[in-house]
């Protein structure tokens, strides 16, 4: 296993169209947004926070783009503003049932058994599930107030506790501060 936490043969590349990192295996030409099986999620989170987080290049810069990148796992309930999702047309679970589900997922993630991205892919009620819950970069005012406050309060690599919004209940993992200010080159 490499310093990235990825299994042998896998590497991290940057998408030109989305400006997001993705996972690529050159020997099989497989590419994917979510980490491959057998990834060490703690190592990967630490690597991504250290290597794919923008760092200010000028201490006097105005920091004009106060944007962060985060992912989330959303569990909706019957009281959510839109109680339906890509996987369930009519969500009838109670808020208490949704909380119990999300707390089980939180326990699994914190134990290192699975990553938020892995669980979000199949369990999140948000359409971002197909991207492992990745919401990309967003700034202040782009998200619901409770979500925004929780996400901006996290340090890169940290995960929130349960956050309640009108959409439902969330776990939020912050990936990066600011838009990327790095460039990557790849050997052909």
UniProtKB/TrEMBL annotation:
Alphabetized GO MF terms: kinase activity; peptidyl-prolyl cis-trans isomerase activity
SMART domains linked: WW
Domain of life: Eukaryota
PpiC domain residues: 65-176
Residues annotated as transmembrane: none
PROSITE patterns in the cross-refs: PPIC_PPIASE_2, WW_DOMAIN_1, WW_DOMAIN_2
Top-level enzyme category: isomerase
Record CDD domains: WW (cd00201)
Keywords of the record: Isomerase, Kinase, Rotamase, Transferase
GO cellular component annotations of the record: cytosol; nucleus
EC number: 5.2.1.8
Catalysis: reaction(s): [protein]-peptidylproline (omega=180) = [protein]-peptidylproline (omega=0)
Listed GO biological process terms: positive regulation of transcription initiation by RNA polymerase II
Residue ranges occupied by any WW domain in the UniProt entry: 4-38
InterPro entries: PPIase_dom_sf, PPIase_Pin1, PPIase_PpiC, WW_dom, WW_dom_sf
Protein name as it appears in the record: Peptidyl-prolyl cis-trans isomerase
């Amino acid at each position: 296993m490499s310093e990235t936490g990825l299994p042998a043969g896998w590497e991290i590349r940057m998408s030109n169209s989305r400006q997001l990192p993705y996972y690529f295996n050159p020997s099989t030409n497989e590419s994917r947004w979510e980490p491959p099986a057998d990834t060490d999620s703690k190592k990967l989170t630490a690597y991504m926070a250290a290597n794919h987080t923008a760092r200010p290049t000028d201490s006097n810069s105005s920091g004009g783009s106060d944007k962060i990148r985060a992912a989330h796992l959303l569990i909706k309930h019957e009281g959510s503003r839109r109680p339906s999702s890509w996987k369930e047309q009519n969500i009838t679970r109670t808020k208490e049932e949704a909380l119990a589900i999300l707390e089980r997922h939180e326990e699994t993630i914190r134990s290192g058994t699975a990553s938020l991205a892995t669980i979000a892919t199949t369990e999140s009620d948000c359409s971002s599930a197909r991207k492992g819950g990745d919401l990309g970069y967003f700034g202040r005012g782009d998200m619901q107030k409770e979500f925004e406050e929780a996400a901006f309060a996290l340090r890169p690599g940290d995960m929130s506790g349960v956050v309640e919004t009108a959409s439902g209940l969330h776990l939020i993992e912050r990936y990066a501060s600011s838009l990327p200010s790095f460039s990557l080159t790849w050997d052909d």
